[in-house]
Amino acid sequence: MNLLSLINERMTGFSKGQKLIASFITEHYDKAAFMTASKLGTTVGVSESTVVRFATELGYDGYPKMQKAMQEMIRDKLTSIQRIEVTKNRFGNDDILWGVLNQDIEKIRKTIEETSREDFSNSVKAISKAKTIYIFAVRSSAALASFLGYYYSLIFDNVKVISNYGETEIYEQLFRISRDDVIIGISFPRYSNAAVKAMSFAKRQGAKVIALTDSMTSPLCEMSDYVLIAKSDMASVVDSLVAPLSMINALIVATIIELDGVVEQTFTNLENIWQEYDVYRNNNGEDTFEK
User: Which residues of the chain have a pLDDT value below 70?
Assistant: First the structure.
C-alpha cells in the first residue's frame, strides 16, 4: 500500500495535528518529499516531533523512510513545470553549486550501496561474449548511450547505438537481435515508453537484457536479466546523470579487464593510427592536424 493509500485509510483516527500533516502531504506531496521533518512541521503548524510520530504511526521506521516513500511516488510523475517549482523550494536562497554537487556525491554513494555486484559482473561477462551489443536510450539518456557506444565501438566491432529513431525505425534496428546478443537499455525518470517496449521486444527474441536505471521499481527491471542501479532522482527539470555515467565508466573499465590482452592490442593499433594521422596535439602543444 502506498503512502497516500495509508493516509486515506487511517485519516479518521489521526489527531488534529496529524490531519494537518496528512492533508498537506495529500495535496502537496511533490513539495513535502524534499522537506525536512522540521520544515514540514513549520509549514503546517505542528512540531517536528509530531511529524516524526506521524511517520511512525503510518508504519515507517522514522521520518526519512516516509520521505523516501514520497520521493518514490513522484520520481516519474512530475511535469517539467512541477520539477522547476520543487527545485526552487528545495534550494531556496542556498548555494546552488554546493547543493547540486553534494547531491550528486550522495547519489554516487547510494549507487555504491544499492547496485548488485553480481549483476554487474554478469553484465560484463554477457557483454564480452555477445555477438552484437545493442545500446538503447532516448531523450536525455541518449547522451549516456553515445558515451558508452563510443568506447565500446573502440573495443568491439559489433556495437549498435539506438537513440534517435522513430518508433518504427527502432524495431527496424532491433529486428535481427537474437539469443546471441545483448541489449543495454538506459532510462531514468520520467521513464521512456520506447525503452520499455524495445527491451520487451529484445527479451522476446531471446537476447540478454541489461537495464541501467535508478530503482528496482523501474519498469525496465521487469524484463531484465541483470539490473545496474545508478541513482538519478533529482526532482529538477535537469536530469542528474553523474552516477549513471560513473556506472558506465565502471562497465567500460571492467570490460577492458575482462578481455585482457585483446583490448591492449586494439589500443596499440589505435595509437599507431592516431599518431600516423596526427589526431592529437603533440607534446609541444602544437596542433599538428593537417587541414
Answer: 1, 75-94, 233-238, 282-291
pLDDT tens figures, 34-77 = 888 999 999 999 999 999 999 998 999 999 989 888 877 776 56
* Ramachandran angles phi, psi of 96, nearest 5°: -65, -40
Residue with cell 527545485: 87
Mode of pairing for the β-strands spanning 133-136 and 159-162: parallel
Q: Can you read off the three cell numbers belonging to residue 30?
A: 511533490
d(Cα 237, Cα 136) in Å, to the nearest integer? 22
Beta bridge partners of 135: 161, 184
**In this structure, are 90 and 143 located in the same domain?**
no
SS3 content of the chain, % helix, strand, coil (to 5): 60, 10, 30
pLDDT tens-digit readout, 256-290: 999 877 777 777 777 788 777 777 776 655 554 44
Residue 84 shares a structural domain with residue 150: no
Number of H helices, E strands in the chain: 13, 5
The verdict on 145 and 83 lying in the same domain is no
Looking at residue 204, its pLDDT comes to 94
- Predicted TM-score (pTM) of this structure: 0.71
The CATH number of whichever domain residue 186 belongs to comes to: 3.40.50.10490
Q: Which cell goes with 123?
A: 553484465
CATH number at residue 14: 1.10.10.10
| Dihedral over alpha carbons 86, 91, 97, 103 (to 10 degrees) | -70
Contact yes or no for 145/137 (Cβ under 8 A): yes
